[in-house]
Amino acid sequence: MALVKREIRPTAELTPFRTWGPMSLFDEFNRLFEETLGDLGRVTAPSAYVVPVDLYETDDALVLEMAVPGLTAEEINISLEGNKLTIRGEHKPVEDQGVRRYYLQEIPHGTFVRSFTLPVEISSDEVKAEFRNGMLKLTMPKVETARAKRIPISVAQ
To answer: Which of the listed residues 15, 40, 57, 84 has the most CB atoms within 10 Å of its CB?
Structure first.
């Protein structure tokens, strides 16, 4: 019996600096299943996309910031029902898309919906929405009972 020397090639998966994005899991599934099943094992990514959001709290309000580049304020719909906030919008495809021959197409288009259950009660009459440079910012003031109150400590003598 003869021994066969095999060359081991380093792959990108082994580097300690590998970053993980939203599509990395699908890429890993594709790689794993393609090695065993060929093209029959290819997993396709879902067609919907998630618009990135930051939701944080200040002493007086909840603040939501959403990145929606390429949209106008008129293309975004915001609704608040009780403590449920829903934001909807649509990225429309480019008009001359039939003429284009893409080499790479990563800019998403289609509708998106994001819903949030707010952790504190807010004053819905005082909510302010600003839209600037593709960023939507909602400032939702808390009701007086939900605001943090400082309780003074008296020193016993």
So the answer is: 57
- The per-residue pLDDT for range 26-64, each reduced to its tens digit, is 666 666 666 666 544 444 444 467 889 999 999 899 999
What DSSP line would sit under the chain, residue for residue?
------PPPP-GGG-TT----TTHHHHHHHHHHHHHHGGGGPPPPPS-----EEEEE-SSEEEEEEE-TT--GGGEEEEEETTEEEEEEEEPPPTTTTT---S------EEEEEEEE-SS-B-GGG-EEEEETTEEEEEEEBPGGGS------PPP-
Q: Mean of the pLDDT values across residues 20-31?
A: 62
Nearest 5°: CA angle at 42, between 38 and 48?
Answer: 170
User: Two tokens at 46?
Assistant: 């879902």
Q: What pLDDT sits at residue 99? A: 80
Give the whole-angstrom CA distance, residue 79 versus residue 74. 14
Q: Which CATH class is domain 53-95+108-146?
A: mainly beta
Q: Tell me if 34 sits within 8 A of 42, measured CB to CB.
A: yes
Residue 48 in tokens: 């919907």
